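Fold it.
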Amino acid sequence: MNALDEPTTRLVERQGPQTRLRVVRGVGTPDGSRRPGWLHGEWAGRVGHPSSYGLLGGTRAQASSIRVAESGATFRDSLAGASDDVRWGLEQGYEPAIMAALGAQLQPVLITTAAHGSLGSSPHVFGCLARLLSALLATDLPSEDNDLWRMVDRAWNP
């Protein structure tokens, strides 16, 4: 694997209210495309808000679906930090919001990775993350932070 195929991590933050987004991007698709082969998006918003955390990851697909292994293990390095008990896996109650969001997107996604907080996750957060994941997999991670935040805003306010 050459350096261009190594996963890259990008963390962006903005104030008012504080919001953080960590994107881990993998490349090296068989078709030689420079678009991400897989991507994980982790979002953390206002501490204590019922819609303040989620992580969703996946790959481009022919049809959208969810195949997240059940885990329940603690995600100690989450962006939520000590403010929430974040566990690997996906609550079943979030799946309808994810599939509804992906149904309206041009790029189908196979969801393979998720983490949720016991206090700060909600179907709304996971629907928004699904829209963002689809958009990023269809294009790529913008080089400018402001452009990435515009994509986030479109995912949160379709």
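The first helix runs from residue 95 to 103.
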